[in-house]
Amino acid sequence: MEMNIALLPGDGIGPEVIDQAVKVVKAVGQKFGHQINFTEGVVGAAAIDATGEPYPDSTHEVAAASDAVLFGAIGDPKYDNDPKAKVRPEQGLLLMRQKLGLFANVRPTFTFPSLVHKSPLKLERVEGVDFVFFRELTGGVYFGEPRGRNEQGTKAFDTNMYSKEEITRLARMGFEAAQKRRKLLTCVDKANVMATSRLWRETVQELAPEYPDVKVEYEFVDAVAMRLIQWPKAYDVLITENLFGDILTDEASVISGSMGLMPSASLGTSIKLFEPIHGSYPQAAGKDIANPLATVLSAAMMFEYAFDLKEEAQAISDVVNLSLSEGYATEDIADGGPSYKTSEVGDWLAAKILA
Amino acid sequence: MEMNIALLPGDGIGPEVIDQAVKVVKAVGQKFGHQINFTEGVVGAAAIDATGEPYPDSTHEVAAASDAVLFGAIGDPKYDNDPKAKVRPEQGLLLMRQKLGLFANVRPTFTFPSLVHKSPLKLERVEGVDFVFFRELTGGVYFGEPRGRNEQGTKAFDTNMYSKEEITRLARMGFEAAQKRRKLLTCVDKANVMATSRLWRETVQELAPEYPDVKVEYEFVDAVAMRLIQWPKAYDVLITENLFGDILTDEASVISGSMGLMPSASLGTSIKLFEPIHGSYPQAAGKDIANPLATVLSAAMMFEYAFDLKEEAQAISDVVNLSLSEGYATEDIADGGPSYKTSEVGDWLAAKILA
Ligand SMILES: CC(C)[C@H](C(=O)O)[C@@H](O)C(=O)O
Ligand SMILES: CC(C)[C@H](C(=O)O)[C@@H](O)C(=O)O
User: Fold this and answer.
1) Per residue in A113-127, pLDDT tens?
2) Which pathway does this chain act in (chains A, B) (predicted)?
């Protein structure tokens, strides 16, 4: 198969971890006989520095022409404490999501037996956790208008907005995923307060009869924020709006103890994008110490979700598991034992795939 | 001292737990020589059933004329899955907060040594946790206009809105609390996405020089959702807007393992209200099994915050600690050992205060 993959490394540790994913993807291509073409684009602070724009048209063209996008991370602290900055790296991320139509962010949470002891939660609560969030990614308060300030600058406002269509397409993905899993769907909203949430709940209620094999539960976002920590095993598939998804998927990411390993996919009408859920981790940038496994596992998701190549995806998961069981890992998971550089881990994984 | 206390038991287990707090408050009054007058009002589903309104004027008059309000809980599942219901119990809560001007919800999270083993988190992460949230309670998306649907009903929208004044008065409370504690203030926002959050951050940045002894940190809400579980001891005072506060304070409530014991205060320009942070727990209503300690400790907060009576507050905390160490507690904290009814715990506490 021929595949055109756009690489958008972004900021901070983004470039380093993308480099390792590329090594692994190339090795898979070589082993399974695929021709893989890479094209690169800048995004985020890196793009502002280079072009003045956080998601330049040239990058969008690269991404839109590709079969799949591998994305690193975005964000630079020099922009964070300047609330008046006109251009911010995050705008690049939002523009990218919007222009590529990536309306569903899929974030699995699962455990690696060799890492579960790193969870802040007690073993019995977290062992065997396996749920997946479908977060709406191109609507809600992230894009709603009007937003801004009054003339004197003494009042600020944002608009949260959802249409039935936006909710329906995301919810259907959740229902379908639930059908292939444990058949439990949790709709997370704040229907006791927000008009948008009431439309979410109503829309999901209307869809439910089409999926009679799926049990649907409706929970308020504040309750889920509690129960995710108390009883994370109770969940299977969760669907939610953009902002709630932002908060809850990050909360979920620390549950398994393997935050540095969690991949994600952003799906839409055509293009599919894959990225680690960790951020740009600026303190580690350029030091060759960042854990590349989340990005490598995102590449595995890419083979499965974008190209329907399950064997290739499995080959990547297998070497990642091997690296964990053999302790060939970066310092964040080495537990004080011998550890390896970001680039060494990438080389090792690629070599094992070809071995 | 003469004190006029309004009792708003609300729904579910509200009436039962308020009953126990009343026993304890009466005992304190008797012991310390205060004359305490109680007046009752209906609110929530109970009020809808009785009057058609979730926060009737008669209840508001009772609350507004009081020196302090003791509130139980609100919410009835019969309203939850009916997104089209015109009147909802929660509206009573929101109206009450708004009409009483309760703009700051103060929620401490701390541990009880005898209960910390119940935390879903590992002991070393949670032992000694001690932070407090100041959640803005009368603004944001809970009250912003416009909100609703388009004519066809296919689109819904909510408005989040904050003024500098609203942010300032809440932030000042946080700064002042931090000065009396460990001098660390965390401003929680989503300034990389939301206009309201940028006003929050800007306003807090402008106030910070007035409190030079307080170290201020700015963190995104998604990062806090993670770090609250990973490193809960890192926090001291957190300030945030209404919706983020709703989610994060509920998340925080399960950290200590003593959710059934966590009290809260809602403060404003005049009236002060005190309530347990747990909900109406309808499954337990009427069974005399609900844990009354959070409400009893809310009454302790009332003596301290509303009447500046620290000794009285301490007397209540002391008997609560005694009940825990002697195992005179409801089944949720009895660990399979002998347990006592809600009403028995209330009687016991009141008797111990007078002993
Ligand atoms: C960087 C930020 C704008 C972004 C978001 O809020 O969506 C991030 O937190 C994420 O979850 O991808
Ligand atoms: C019941 C609901 C409207 C309320 C809120 O969201 O404020 C509750 O969750 C709370 O935190 O007191």
Assistant:
1) 889 999 999 999 999
2) Amino-acid biosynthesis; L-leucine biosynthesis; L-leucine from 3-methyl-2-oxobutanoate: step 3/4
∠ CA A186-A192-A195, nearest 5°, is: 95
Residues of B in contact with A155 (CB under 8 A): 161-164, 199
Q: How far is CA A113 from CA A254, A256, A258, A324, B244, in A?
A: 15, 10, 10, 10, 33
- B143 in a domain, yes or no? yes
Is B114 in the same domain as B99? Answer: no
Here the tokens at position B241 are 């807007």
Contact B193 A90 (CB under 8 A): yes
State the pLDDT at residue A61: 97
Burial class of residue B151 in the structure, from the number of CB atoms within 10 Å of its CB (0-12 exposed, 13-18 middle, 19+ buried)? exposed
Number of domains comprising chain B: 2
Burial label for A339, CB within 10 Å (0-12, 13-18, 19+), is middle
Q: Nearest chain A Cα to B192, which residue?
A: A90
Is the domain of A320 the same as that of A285? yes
| Residues of B with catalytic roles | 142, 190, 222, 246, 250
Q: Which amino acid, B138?
A: T
- B246 labeled part of a ligand binding site: yes
Specify whether A241 is located in the same domain as A99.
no
Minimum CA–CA partner of B199 in chain A:
A156
Q: pLDDT tens digit string along B212-267?
A: 999 999 999 999 999 999 999 999 999 999 999 999 999 999 999 888 899 999 99
| Closest ligand 1 atom to Cα of A243 | 6
Pick the closest to residue A95 from A70, A67, A132, A64 (CA basis): A64
Phi then psi dihedrals of residue B254, to 5 deg = -95, -5
Expressed in angstroms and rounded, the spacing between residue A247 Cα and the centre of ligand 1 is 9
CB A226 near ligand 2, within 6 Å: no
To the nearest whole Å, the CA of B192 is away from the closest chain A CA by 7
- By the 8 A CB rule, do B24 and B298 touch? no
* Shared-domain flag, residues A56 and A156: no
Which residue from B188, B105, B178 is spatially nearest to B139, judged by alpha carbons?
B105
Active site residue A190: yes
d(CA A12, CA A283): 8
The CATH number for A355's domain is 3.40.718.10
